[in-house]
Amino acid sequence: MSDKAAVPATVTTPDTGTARKLRFHVLRHDPRDPRSVPHTEVFELEEAAGMTLFIALNEIREQLDASLAFDFVCRAGICGSCGMVINGRPGLACRTLTQDLPPDITLAPLPAFELIADLSVNTGKWMRGMSERLETWVHSLEQDTDLRRIEAPMDPDLADRIYELDRCIECGCCVAACGTARMREDFVGAVGLNKIARFALDPRDARTDADFYELVGNDDGVFGCMTLLGCHDVCPKNLPLQTQIAFLRRRMAREGTG
Amino acid sequence: MKVIYTDVLVIGGGLAGLRIAIGARRRGHDAIVLSLVPPKRSHSAAAQGGMQASLGNVIKGEGDNEDVHFEDTVRGSDWGADQQVVRMFVNTAPKAVRELAAWGVPWSRVRQGDREVIINGQKVTITERAEAHGLVAQRDFGGTKKWRTCYVSDGTGHAMLFAVGDQAIAAGVPVHERKEALALIHDGSRCYGAVVRDLITGELMAYVARATAIATGGAGRVYRVTTNAVICEGIGAALALETGVAALGNMEAVQFHPTGIFPAGILVTEGCRGDGGLLRDANGHRFMPDYEPEKKELASRDVVSRRMEEHIRKGNGAKSRFGEHLWLDITLLGRKHIEHNLREVKEICQYFLGVDPAEKWIAVRPAQHYTMGGVRTTHTGESPTLRGLFAAGEAACWDMHGFNRLGGNSVAETVVAGMIVGEFIADFIDSPRGDLDIPTALIREAVAAERAKLDTLLAGSGTERADALKIEMQQIMTDKVGIFRTGTDLEEAVHRLQGLLLRSRQIGLRTRADGPNPELVTAYRTQKMLKVALCIATGALTRTESRGAHFREDFPARDDAHWLKRTLATWKDPGDTLPCLAYEQLDVLSMELPPGWRGYGARNYVDHPDTPRRVEELERLRERLQGAGRHEVQAEIMPYQHLLPERFRGRNERIDERLP
């Protein structure tokens, strides 16, 4: 362990009182470097008003250690890049305010995904693999839509219900929080099951329950879920994963036995 | 050395890039998409409020069509846009919405019957038509005559990106993630692909392609305060610029969005104002009607942002420890509406401001938002000076936004340009122009040149810190090349940026590992970003007029007589510290809509000498064609259908305009 400290670069100082000293315990490792051993490194920063983990980690990189690897893209809670384990709980770092955390903050990469380095994991590769396996796209009967014609109508409530499930940002928090995913490398996770539920709801998708059964009617699919439901607890978008998984299990069980 | 061959190399995995790749695949060509990040994390996902397309399904969109969308877009551009390209765009946008609907985008839909909406601060009941029930709905946005913005709650870009991303997977398009193009391979007249770095292993590779498309989005991160994602650093524009051959168009045209949350700069959608939200000052006074009695909060973004800054300058800003700001009030929309149609906004306010926007006002101030300029292309998306190089979306300047883009026209442009340019790329590959005949020495030398640059950074004795240079550049851009510009400020900016560029040639690294080394990435990107920043600042300094988002306090009038032209910036020699600027004249005599007053903003412009003649010509023409249908009249004035790829030609059906 090494200790490093720095003066904050931001001009933003809190209104009154003395700022807290934050200690970030960050898991570090470069799996491509044969000399690298996973270890925790501690960085100290002075807290600033409105400080998020996005701001804090960038400050650490700018001032204390230019080599620290992590991923941010939108920094607004929309893109799902910055999932990490924050004090033991998977979440989006960009929208986590340090004021909501104790002064000792432990950061680790999401488990279940291939580690790139430090806090950066390869969720993209995992999600693409899942999408290919589950064929997460509308399987339309029509070959070519006539784009000049008025679109097919859809019940407004149904469109809203599909969007509710379409809000998933593939951040990987649900997979990181999943007991089954730890034991079964090929488990599709709540993210995968939610997608099947989304396409099953969509009348534009011509697939039937029998088709979906082929995709998730097994232990790597909906029957692998042990209903621990860590996924539901940590989902940053508050997707109704518990209901969707239960609903899908029932449909798939009926399909498998019927 | 690894060399990968393909038909189409797409640099950038957002909506424009993915749609190009899908189009090329459907025409039987191979395509590889390079992406810095998993494609579904691209900045396209951040488009919240919606996509403009003149479907005219909602009652407040009744009577909307391509003509109205065309006029709104050209007025919005302050006559900087290429009007034929705007026509191509507005005619394809409804087709894009319908294609996306077929691909699974859960567009919010019209519900027949009465509903309560907020218009100009008042509750109004409107009645949706029975025949529109279940069709794609539209909301109001700034600078538009009709409600035209199609939306999926306020997660429109996300829903579009996931649908298109999944279609790309269905089409078997390989996306090479965490790979970054460092340079284009070219011989001064033909582009052959790119030198690419693997951001995980550090490996350098060559991607050789018959067509190369830049779809890397905007350059917002050259500014300190921006709504843009951290990957929007203008690198695609820099790649084109560094060829010395391809030009960047109108880089000084930079949009500032009125409602970045203060001070983080995170966007809250224009849909807030479109749905009836109001701007208020420190005293709670709704000030926009004082400045813009006609469009109020819904004038174009450049105008609203300027009025906000003007109002703050007059001492009406709310004060906070971070500086001054104004308020966005959406409480009048009601909790139900906010939790249904503005849920991302609600989440952002909750997480970043600790505020419930159904109860409290949102602290906002304009922030850099959009790059109207980009790689200059023709209407086909191809660079006129470097064969085989294409560009689309925010990275390109083909040029449909001119000096100000309308809200809802950018996410629309991504898919529309992807559709159109994808077809033209396929045509190019099918033609002799697309034949590829590349000497292997050219590939080897291009890779060696990039290797040498990286080695200089990794092993050199430079002492400059990359992140410090980058922050200084961003601060200069925000302070001196912002909403209000003056010759003095811009001269200072150019001078200081030149100094930074020289210093960036002496960057030294503390972390000398190749592979996942964020400091190395910042170093080579900062060198590129400084060139892009210099194109913006010199373009702004040279343009002694005000047009759209480019506002010169020392030259407040729009000067059509001298400045109805597009800036073209090239970077002739790698050792230069300034771009070369040239200008491309816009032809008033071929415009469908000659320059005039926009309908909002200051009425302050100098006419082009050809304008009265064109106005008169058009009056005579319209008189002669009295009784003819709108399509016939339009085709007489400024034909454009022949410019579109064949599969996207043709009229768009509407409730009131049925096709046979």
Number of helical segments with 4 or more residues of chain B: 18
Which residues of chain A form runs of ≥5 with pLDDT under 50? 1-15
How many DSSP E strands of chain A? 8
The biggest sheet of chain A, with number of strands, parallel, antiparallel or mixed sense and barrel status, is: 6 strands, mixed
End-to-end distance of chain A? 59 Å
Q: What fraction of the residues of chain A are assigned to beta strands by DSSP?
A: 5-15%
The whole-number mean of residue pLDDT values of chain A reads: 92
Per DSSP E runs of 2 or more residues, the count of β-strands of chain B stands at 24
How does the helix and strand content of chain B classify structurally?
A: alpha/beta
Distance between the termini of chain B: 58 Å
Fraction of helical residues of chain A = 25-40%
Q: What's the order of the H and E elements of chain A?
A: EEEHEEEEEHHHHHHHH
Strand proportion of chain B, as a percent range, falls in 15-25%
Describe this structure in words.
The complex is a heterodimer of chains A (258) and B (660). With 258 residues, chain A is an alpha/beta fold. Chain A has helices at residues 53-63, 123-134, 156-166, 173-176, 179-183, 189-201, 209-216, 230-234, 241-257; strands at residues 3-5, 21-28, 39-46, 83-86, 89-92, 104-108, 115-117, 120-121. In chain A, helix 3 (156-166) runs antiparallel to helix 6 (189-201), helix 6 crosses helix 9 and helix 7 packs across helix 9. Chain A is elongated. Chain B is α/β, with parallel strands linked by helices. Helices cover 35% and strands 18% of the residues of chain B. In chain B, the strands form six sheets. In chain B, strands 1, 2, 8, 9, 10, 11 and 19 form a seven-stranded mixed β-sheet that branches. In chain B, strands 20-18-12-22-23 form a five-stranded mixed β-sheet. In chain B, strands 13, 14, 15, 16 and 17 form a five-stranded antiparallel β-sheet that branches. In chain B, a hairpin with a 5-residue loop joins strand 10 and strand 11 (204-214). In chain B, helix 1 (15-26) runs parallel beside helix 4 and helix 5 crosses helix 15. The longest helix of chain B is centred in the last third of the chain and has 25 residues, at 518-542. Chain B is globular and about 70 Å long. The model of chain B has no long low-confidence stretch (mean pLDDT 96). Chains A and B meet through helix 2 and helix 3 of A and helix 3, helix 4 and helix 10 of B.
